[in-house]
User: Which sequence fits this backbone?
């Protein structure tokens, strides 16, 4: 649905009154973003599907309680997703670990498949390092690079100031660079 | 303390941008999730609304017919009871 026809405030009002068609519109609008977030946080297509569906189920069940307090609806959805992913990691840590290397890399939007194959080794190494970061730093990188959000937008989702996000981002880059050095991972230039 | 090389960080940012790209969930996966969440498709909603209207008309017609039949039967019984 084009953005010009989508009045989020109106759709949210209808959805919170139990209009499932309106909630369907919200689903169509945010499914890709939530799926991306969950996919990069889990690194697992099957669990990404399961958790994304649960995010929207939970959102649908609780949308009557949603109130606009200056925080965008997307932030509310991301928080649900964040909580479910955190629970998933906690449950998973109690069970047998699944090697993250087995995770397939989905084709990116507008990317050539061969280019993905060439870069997959390098991407996997970097993704493994990213997944070892604290969840807050993972969130930050996903929102910045996958969702292409500004520091201010990320701050509204993470409940931090723009300056705090900028500072956390810089510290995250330094930590990643150090880990790359420690593990002798060389990222080749294109 | 390590001296921070800005070029290293720019390079790392470029690699992050190349790695953390938006992915497109397969369409069958989106449909599967939609059916799991169980909110109907717009066409399904239209069909359901049409169906409810149809059911209402049928129910109303049956009830009206029943009332007419009962009224006629009662009238018939009232007028001809004594003669039977």
Assistant:
């Amino acid at each position: 649905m084009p953005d010009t026809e989508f009045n989020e405030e109106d759709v949210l009002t209808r959805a919170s009154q139990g209009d499932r068609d309106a909630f369907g519109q919200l689903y169509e609008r945010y499914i890709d973003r939530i799926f991306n977030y969950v996919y990069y946080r889990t690194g697992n297509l099957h669990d990404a599907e399961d958790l994304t569906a649960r995010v929207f189920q939970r959102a649908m069940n609780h949308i009557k309680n949603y109130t606009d307090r200056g925080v965008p609806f997307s932030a509310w959805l991301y928080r649900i997703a964040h909580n479910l992913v955190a629970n998933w990691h906690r449950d998973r840590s109690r069970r047998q670990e699944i090697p993250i290397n087995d995770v397939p890399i989905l084709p990116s939007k507008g990317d050539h498949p061969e280019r993905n194959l060439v870069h997959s080794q390098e991407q996997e190494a970097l993704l493994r390092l990213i997944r070892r970061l604290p969840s807050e730093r993972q969130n930050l990188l996903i929102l910045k690079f996958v969702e292409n959000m500004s520091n201010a937008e990320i701050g509204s989702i993470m409940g931090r100031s723009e300056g705090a996000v900028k500072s956390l981002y810089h510290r995250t880059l330094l930590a990643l660079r150090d880990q790359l050095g420690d593990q002798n991972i060389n990222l080749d230039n294109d | 303390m390590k001296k921070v090389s800005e070029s290293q960080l720019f390079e790392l940012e470029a690699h992050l941008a190349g790695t953390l790209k938006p992915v497109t969930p397969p369409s069958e996966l989106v449909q599967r999730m939609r059916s799991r969440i169980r909110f109907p498709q717009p066409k399904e909603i239209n069909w359901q609304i049409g169906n409810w209207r149809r059911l209402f008309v049928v129910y109303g017609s049956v009830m009206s017919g029943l009332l007419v039949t009962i009224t006629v039967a009662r009238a018939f019984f009232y007028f001809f009871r004594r003669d039977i």
Observations:
- Helices of chain B lie at 6-19, 27-37, 42-80.
- The radius of gyration of chain B is 35 Å.
- Residues 6-80 of chain B form one domain.
